[in-house]
Amino acid sequence: MKRIVFLRHGESIWNKENKFTGWTDVPLTSKGKKEAVQAGMLLKANGFVFDIAFTSSLKRAISTLNLTLEEMEAEWVPVVKSWRLNERHYGALQGLDKDKAREEFGDDQVLEWRRSYATTPPLLKKGDERSPKDDVAYRRVESSKLPLGESLENTVSRVAPVLREVIEPSLLEGMEVLVVAHGNSIRALIKYLEGLTDEEIVGLDIPTGQPLVYELEDDLTHKNHYYLKT
Ligand SMILES: O=C(O)[C@@H](CO)OP(=O)(O)O
């Protein structure tokens, strides 16, 4: 049996402030840091020992991973950071208050932007200071690959190469894998891994700071999954 654990970062300041976040690089709140430590405690208590960990280029995921590994006394675990594991890019919605967006655009529109599979949010315009194309963190990424706003479907296409080319080979080698990422990038990974339909993924929500364990057959087909609980 193969095992991969997904962990959504702990609460960020924009989770707390109820803002569309996407690729905005905001830090964890003190509650978020505690959630990361708690996740490390749970993983350690349940006997998890990881051979490799993957995270995004965003500090809320990186800090969560660091705090989790520190709590597990496993800071030696090799870490791969990839922009492909970043949160779904929320385009021009990034920075908007989610309740204010509902007042302005209506509940249905906001729900569609947040949870539908194929709808793209309003895109950032060229030259917008929120564009990843001008961000030093992505200077080695081909500009045409960097999004100005994504549907979940776009995010699935973006995360698939890292899953196929690095995560799945690690699992096939027998490694225990930890992925610390974001609500929508984890939904994208799970859709791909579990082969969920476009409709099934709409109802899936990932809570912050709770390790989600996937058990897979030797050929990586889905066997079972569960959250680790205290
Ligand atoms: O704002 C975001 O980037 C995401 C995750 O916090 O929000 P939502 O759950 O609305 O997709």
* Biggest β-sheet strands, sense, barrel: 6 strands, mixed
Order of helices and strands: EHHEHEHHHEHHEE
Ligand kinds: 2-phosphoglyceric acid
Question: What is the CATH superfamily?
Answer: Phosphoglycerate mutase-like
Strand content: 5-15%
Total beta strand runs: 6
Q: Which class best fits the helix and strand makeup?
A: alpha/beta
Any idea what the CATH architecture is?
Answer: 3-Layer(aba) Sandwich
Domain module count: 1
Principal-axes shape call: globular
Low-pLDDT ranges: none
- Give the spatial strand order of the biggest sheet: 3-2-4-1-5-6
Here the CATH topology equals Rossmann fold
The pLDDT mean sits at: 97
First and last CA, distance = 24 Å
The total of helices stands at: 8
Instruction: Estimate the helix proportion, in percent.
Output: 25-40%
Q: Please give the CATH class.
A: Alpha Beta
Radius of gyration, CA atoms, in whole angstroms? 17 Å
Catalytic activity: (2R)-2-phosphoglycerate = (2R)-3-phosphoglycerate
GO molecular function: phosphoglycerate mutase activity
GO biological process, one term: glycolytic process
Organism: Fulvitalea axinellae
Describe this structure in words.
The chain has helices spanning 13-16, 30-45, 59-71, 98-105, 107-115, 152-172, 183-194, 198-202; strands spanning 2-8, 52-55, 79-81, 177-181, 212-216, 222-227. The chain has 230 residues and is of the alpha/beta class. It has a single domain (2-227), classed as Phosphoglycerate mutase-like (Rossmann fold). The chain has a six-stranded mixed beta sheet. Strand 5 (212-216) and strand 6 form a beta hairpin. Helix 2 (30-45) packs across helix 3 (59-71), helix 4 packs across helix 5 (107-115) and helix 6 packs across helix 7. The site of 2-phosphoglyceric acid has 9 residues, from helix 7.
